Protein 1
Amino acid sequence: MLESQSKWIFTYNESNAGNLQELADLNVSPIIKQILLKRGMDTAEKADQFLQPELNQLHATTAFSDIDKGVNRVKKAIEDGESILVYGDYDADGVTSTTLMVEALRESGAMCDYYIPNRFTEGYGPNKEAFREAHRQGSK
């Protein structure tokens, strides 16, 4: 097992104890209430919006610059039967988002695969050699 190279310093903010009262009516464990407070959800309303999200809370996709170009390119790749490669990440949210993207693309009719780099041999961030290899194998 790898030894941590970091010294973890845990901070406990006792001033949040008063805010726990705001979350008293939530039907969650005390530790979940503390996590919610740490993440800025210091009212029952904010906590409920986080715990019971609705679609209207999502960011408008139109706010992303050039999103239409990306959507059109993916649609064209699906229509033309091109191979799509989802370049993922190896942490928990990276694997989860890679899985969701691959499933969504496949349900849309895409010929799709994924690549998750090795953190130890390929490091962090995009890897030029991985992109070159994917292109050699037919991904555009």
Protein 2
Amino acid sequence: MSVEVRVPTLGESVTEATVATWFKKPGDAVAVDEMLCELETDKVTVEVPSPAAGTLGEIVAAEGETVGVDALLATLSEGKGAAAAPKGKDKAPAVADPVDANAADAVDVMVPTLGESVTEATVSTWFKKVGDTVAQDEMLCELETDKVSVEVPSPAAGVLSEILAAEGSTVEASAKLAVIGGAVAADASSDAQAPSSQGNGGKDVSNAPSAEKLMADKGLSADQVQGTGRDGRIMKEDVMKAAAAPAPAATAPAPPAQTPRAPVAASDEAREERVKMTRLRQTIARRLKDAQNTAAILTTYNEVDMTEVMALRNEYKDLFLKKHGVKLGFMSFFTKACVHALREVPEVNAEIDGQEIVYKNFIHMGIAAGTPQGLVVPVIRDVDGMSFADIEKAIAEKGARARDGKLSMAEMQGGTFTISNGGVYGSLMSSPILNPPQSGILGMHKIQERPMAIGGQVVIRPMMYLALSYDHRIVDGKGAVTFLVRVKEALEDPRRLLMDL
């Protein structure tokens, strides 16, 4: 009996994805829930498990193709036993010229997941070279796409017989990256491991992906860098150290300018370094401009005296840590204060859908976080029903996952309001940009002692500027100011939160 493998639900307002990597090929036997392929949407990778045990038949959506929700990805024959592998109509004809003699066993390496509406990617780094023996699922290369760096694993064990997309080249979603010749079963991975380590300077360890990328940028090979990581693993810092010594000559010639710019003296041009924008940075630029072009963004400001919050935090932080196992920070206070204000001014928690206003009877709080890859906004769902401890635990857990690049797609979708804390970087004042389709974002800033006139006297108080950017199409100035005043009142007298005042 044939079973269809379809695109799973991708999340709120996400209508399409790109097939990133197939981990199985036609004819492979698969177990129920075994991962078949990966899809990429806006910010994360979505795994597609097998709905049944059996044999993978035809792959309908090849790697690099863009597919809609519920689209057919492949067919699966239920039951045991593997159909003939050459049945793979998508694969066999495309690998007629591999180096390996076993052409029938050759497997294409296709462009992995690129994300919603993304049609191309840039090859960042190849971790293997032609002739290297690779194990199944061993990382072959890394691509730069919208929100993340996408790793491309080997779909089978064998020999990397051909690389079709060199480092730095731009590839389309349907492009073929390489060919694995003499593909063998996964149990051959033990034989493939030893030769594959030669790409890492003879060490049987994988270098840090960030190090591999930087080596590619600097034109360095692994044998030119001394690894200081565990078992000799090359880290990013090792590459930076090596690049600072004899390597500058590799990056000195600046490529020609692609767009007209002001004249540059030859002596200055020799000291420039030209780096192509990553897919992440291009996407950030496009989406920020889209937000400005779509929403009527206006920002209102206020300031808050942090004396009471700081005193309360200092009084209970040790007991809080002992009981809940997490530190008591400022974010839980601000989150609680925003929940309190959003209940009174619900339009800040709403969104525009066509000619309708959608009011949310729940609060999913986005907490903007800066990562080495760029800005991401993990979402804490139903934060309005959470305690201080629950909020602090959620923020800590999602922050760690964001830094490690392990956030799932669902964890970054569905937010109704966002908090951005530029104060951690020393920002004193800024105007945050909306995170569409949300209608409001609160900007926190640096706490700074300033002289304040209180009761006819000048006293020194720890003050913070607050900024609320909002969509003026749905939120009036009165509502925005009321929201910010309620946040200020709740923080300057935290007891109001307990009494819902």
Protein 3
Amino acid sequence: MTSTTSTTSIPPQDQPRVIFAGAGPGDPELLPLKTHRLIAEAQAILFAGSLVNPAVFAHCPPTADVADSAAMDLETLCDWMITRVKAGKTVLRLHTGDPSLYGAIAEQIRRLKAAGVPYEVIPGISSFLAGAALLGTELTLPGFTQTVILTRMSGRTPVPEKEALEKLAAHRATLVLFLSTGMVEKVAEACLTAYPPETPAALVYRAGWPDQQVIRGTLATLPEQVKEAGINRTALIYIGDCLQGQGEDSLLYHAAFSHGYREGHQ
């Protein structure tokens, strides 16, 4: 049996292509430098208008061809990109956060490949990282958990049965849920099969935007708190003991811990 190795090469910089770029969580100052430069040089920009803050590309050239993909279906937005690349333009496709997480880029890439259009992907700061920063917490807290599970409740996009929230909750790791705020009661119900009711829980709404908001509670109280706040989308749910901030010290900086840059001592 032989094995093959497949690699994806980045097109030459002067070759028209589609660049999928993470536009960060919303704060223009959390935009990657590379993406900031590409916006300043952009010939065409297609952005997810329902999620990407327009402030992140306010510095794009006035001559840039800019369109909002919010009202487009998959075939329309892919045709928009393909048409412009074949006309000699590089298209900057701006996704919220990091495009590798719930970015729906795989289906776009498949169509670009079928059309013979080159592409590349530039990472961005995910909203779950911006949310953790806003909460002022370490998600991998020594003494509590060294695992973070990123997931979502099943909706229009189904979740495989092996990844049902009750099964993931059984690990008692830090949980971060995308695209699930409108089902926060079901989230709590599923997690209460494994976590105690007093487990710290929080919701972060639009981290990085001017109207960002944090709701802190417990697994038992969060659904009612979110309902009272009137939030049903564009938010992340955090569940886990890491949110209480108490735990053991990491061994990394322990005086007795030796590594390549420091000799430990008792």
Protein 4
Amino acid sequence: MNSFEDLIETAQNFIGLLLAGDFTSTASKFDDQMKIALNEAKLQETWINTIKEAGTLIQLNAPKTAEVESYRIVTIPCSFQRSIIEVQITFNKEGQISGLNFIPTNMEYHAPDYVEKSAFHEIDTTIGEGKWALPGTLTVPDGSGPFPGLVLVHGSGPNDRDETIGPNKIFKDIAWGLASKGIAVLRYDKRTFVHAKQLTPDLVDQMTAKEEVIDDALLAIDLMCKTEGIDPKRVFYLGHSLGATLAPRIAQQDNGLAGIIIMAGITRSIEETILDQFTYLYNLDGNMTEQQKAELDDLKEKVDKLKDPEFIENISRQDLPLAMPVDYWKDLHNHDTVAIVKTLSMPILVLQGGRDYQVLESEDFKGWKDALNHRENATLKVFPELNHLFIAGEGKSSPQEYMVEGHVEKEVINSLVEWIK
């Protein structure tokens, strides 16, 4: 009988194949009975349905083992962006897989101390209409308005309205925290989250930041301005991560905004940011593997190619970092965030976590600072102990930290309230 050490390695490799979408190889690990009970097509359908709303994988957690009669069971909890899925694999004495279970665990939200639930109520709403309509939540203070309003816009990837990452819901923290202090907040599920099935390969290839973020953000701002009980002259925009990077571009298209808030927005190019992030992560434990070195070299080569204006005209997705669509890269290159922010006259608040490894104080925050230093109506603030999610921690930040329950720091909430009011 195989040792548990060997079975754990087999289980981890099996999950890797599932994540890569290689269902032929995964199904080949089954014993004869499992091949009948869960054929390749059924395995693919079950796995896709299990993870479709889970979001991005953050990490594989420590395995658990058990022995029942002649079978050995390895369970590996997989931490995804919005849930933990336990992959439970049963091995027979020959080391073949004779049982497989996917057990999702939704993570319960606990409100932070600064929230006063009795001070506000929530209303379901819809942003836009037709094919790309998005469900949203309007969090409204109790009492008589009109209230100042804030629209929240997410980072990259298929985010839900709470911008859920592990057990953390940073947009829910902000919405409930600000509504407790008399500010109405609108948040909504992102197009790539709600309408993933409608996004055909052709549509994905043509997608830019406009379709992914900007169009829906402008509709959300318009809805907020037209909502009864909201002061249309005091509607603000808050973007986090990609939403922060695009804030100047969105403000340029909606002159009615009272101001914009940039929380962890980059001022470097996205390809430089991706390269820096992978370099940081691969060096976290000080021991880069040969595979990681090769992946980093490949990424560097792709980033260098993007700097060649002729190359980008004749490029395929496979030649680009993270295989992102060509039109997406071109669109970002054609809109200089720093140049745009210099043209805006509205009040601007820039917030940065000092421990953020994704958006750097030394590079990106400095970029905002250099662009806005002369402006009396620009406020820039660094929170030394906070990470990319504006949650406090110690030491070097890592993706694993995002799986620890925390909340947007009270000092950040207070800064937002003070600036908006």
